[in-house]
What we know:
single chain, Alpha-Beta Plaits, 2 domains, five-stranded mixed sheet, 27% strand, transmembrane, transmembrane helix, membrane
Amino acid sequence: MFRKFTKLYMVFLVGLIILGGVSIFLSGKPSEVERASLEEKAAQKTPGYATMTSLADIAGKHLEEDAILDIQVSPDEMREDALLQLQTTESATEDTLLKNTYDLLQDVQKIGSIETFTISWFMQLEDQNAEVLSLTLKKEELDELHTIRYSELPSITSKYVEHKALQ
């Protein structure tokens, strides 16, 4: 009789331990929604995140969704250097790219934390994706945008590189 009670007691204890362990495991694990919310909050605190999402929104407003190849923001104390790499069609011209760049820059200049901004356009040439136009503007040059036309962009940039395919 004593053995039956001991076996029954042991089975009961093992069952309670298993049940307790499972309940602790399940209750301690955040749901998918909670985890996504926590990850979003952590990302928002990352330096450069707000600028990166602003650039993505600006590019999405002016261009097709799949035009964005890369966005990089390098925060440094109170300023940020940003790079936006975009894909264009095979039939793009320098004039078209300058118009599109000018429109983008009108919104980019409103992001106050950007000290240096580089925009690079890529196009499929033969069997490779090549950079066909790149412009780098400093904060002061971005502030000059309202005084020029899109065709004058190359004259105010710190760096202007055009691939021979556009010439």
